[in-house]
Fold this protein.
Amino acid sequence: MERAVPTMDAELANRLLSTMWRIRAFEERVAQLKRTMQVHGLIHLSIGGEGVAAGVCGQLRNDDGVYSGHRAHGHAIAKGAPLTGMMAELMGRVDGLCHGLGGSMHVVDREHGMLGATGVVGGNLPMAAGDALAAKLGGTDRITVVFFGDGAVQAGHFHESVNLAALWQLPLIFVCENNGMAEFTSRAEHSPVDSVSDVVAPYGFKRATVEGSDVGAVWTGFGKFLKLARRGGGPFLLECRTHRRAGHYEGDAQEYRDELAEQEWAQRDPLARFQEQALADGLIDEPTAAEIETQARAAVEAAVEGARKSTFPTAELAAELVYAK
Amino acid sequence: MSHEIPYIAAINEAIQLEMERDEDVLYFGQNIATTEDDPFLKAFGSDRVRVTPISETAEIGMAVGAALAGLRPVVELYMAEFMLVAMNQVVNEAPRFRYMSGGRVKVPLVLKAGYGFTAGWAGQHTGSIYSMFTGVPGLKVVLPSTAADAKGLMATAIRDDNPVCYFHHYLLTLEHGDVPDGEYLVPFGQAAVRREGGDVTIVATGFMVGKALAAAEALASEGISAEVIDPRTLVPLDLDTILTSVEKTGRLVLVDQATRYGSASAAIAADVAEHGFSSLKAPIKQVTALDATIPYSEPMEAFLLPDEAKISAAVHQVLGGSPVATA
């Protein structure tokens, strides 16, 4: 494990904490709205994974591409997607980022480089490679990041994509959120290889494993690869060991796993962990930390109100959007 | 002005012309550009002409991602069955991405695949599997039957802003035909009336167009006048041309090399039954492959497939002995 040696300052700490609180507040509110069916569809929360989203996306430009999977809220928010557009999308409204036709698993916000999210595990991997190919052929220094879970690594499209990305030296950073759970079963039941970064060893590109609940470690680990990718290097793989606090989907009874002790969760909660560290290091004070949380929750509330003002999409949109004219 | 070239050369001519016209067009697939003398490689370089590993999911998935980023990839798949390896990308990503984004993006992509190689290639290389894709909203499905259409439909496919499954029939590969010089586009959704006639409408696709025309010629000597329509694109389908013809003839025979259940033929029959029932003087007749995997053995292969004799028999059937026929 690579330990965190972040070049952390007050401004960065504030920024990372703000992003993580925006994600956390958004998802806690989504869970509430789901219980009252104001958000009606299939929802996968990323509580416990905010450190990866903030540490990676916080270093990207708008023209850098991100592909995510079914657990995409955090990545989209960290990449800059507006909360009202996100919330309206989850509530199925016409002012959602995708006019309500995509929903939680298929958020697209091209303005901020959120290129898409796919609902089939690993389906995003070759698409991200295609985006990286376009970046390379276009002669730009923009890069592509693809987020996926450890469950995707056992699928064929992972290996096909890694092979082609390595063969064609694409400016692509694979970011694996290894939370040890593939849907409802543990990693040990899926693969004899514990570490995802070991899986790609034969391809010869740089790879690292970091503690995903330590946003500083993610920031540093990803930052090293990003610097190289900007200069034409790639691909890279960053494995982030995380903990999935929520079930696979909202409403999941989670009978398949033991309750994590609250004490252990406190250690693996990227938000609590970073906030305590930042307070202890004097990078932030108590009132500022409280204000960041308050502002995040207020922004989410405003997003809910904004989304409620939007109407539902109407029937003609369905036929209109099937084909590009 | 035109020139006579084989069907396969017409396809390549279209790709070449489009690559000259638009530098965003890429061409990649397995075993292409394997030597430095490859004409595509020489003309366009290894950035735009790429040989890939045997990784259909990565090839097609990468093409989807590149298309979303603004490029126009043409993926060479050789065999339609090879697409089956990558069904998630073909069915679940490429055609759905635009729609799920609320129309924020587009996926201009051509999946070029040969089909129907019923020349002893046995069970896994001979299928006419296009109907697996006609039922997927967001995909377009193209089936050229002549060299000229092979060129014109490929050019249109490359310029289209949607994912297009371009299925070329392997048994037409070396069939020569007159092909217009230079830029030539055949619009999607416009059927071609290959032969005019007043007694019966025969709708045939791909390799079956030639069989239907041969049957029509033989029927003419018996005094039966058959109209032969080639839809050229199954999605979008030019139903109007078919309905107009059926209005005139009152009888419809559908010829499809695919197996019947869930076929394009069955879909067209349903559309005509729904929208053109009052025109019909006899039940619609389908001439399709039997619902079985294509066998290796030559006589068995022939037994399963539609041919001129089966088409003629179907025409005789709709012209007489029908419970609702008046003529």
In short: Confidence is low (pLDDT under 50) at residues 1-6 of chain A. The two ends of chain A are 51 Å apart (CA to CA). Chain A has twelve helices and eight strands. The longest strand of chain A covers residues 172-178.
